Amino acid sequence: MEGVAEKKSWQSRWHAHPGVRTGRDLSRGERAADKMRDTMGSWPFVFGFFAVMIIWAGTNTWLLERVLHHKAFDPYPYILLNLFLSMMAGVQAAALLIAAKRSDAIQSEVAVHTAKNTDDIKVLLAENTQLTNEVKRNTDLLEELHRHVTEIGNRLGAFGGRFGPDEAPQT
Fold this sequence. Notes:
Layout: H1 28-40, H2 43-67, H3 79-159
Helix pairs in contact: 1-3
């Protein structure tokens, strides 16, 4: 395994964002909402849920009645299963709202972090632009100084008789 930080492709990676609170920074309810969202909003949960439904129906219809010749505890049309599913739907609606509220909080933390970083980047860009302009101005001045010094050197050399204005000094 490549490490604990590596997640399966079906799991969320929001916790890796530097602007999102994680671990001990979260309340118990926020940690529970994250766990619930990560569990209930996953393919393993969906497949596990379908497996429980199939096992329930198979146990009551096929295993108990036909194989063991015993009375099923929830025969077709599975009234007890329907009761459990109805109760679960009521609880699941509240659970989904809790998970959605936590997701909104995460998105808000990411947005605030992004806005802060954007402001910081704007300040750094302005400073960089100012420094670049100063370097350009200093480079232009240096080139002008170099041109004047070269011109002075050429004139002094030509007037001193050592070399002509278009000739390079000999060493």
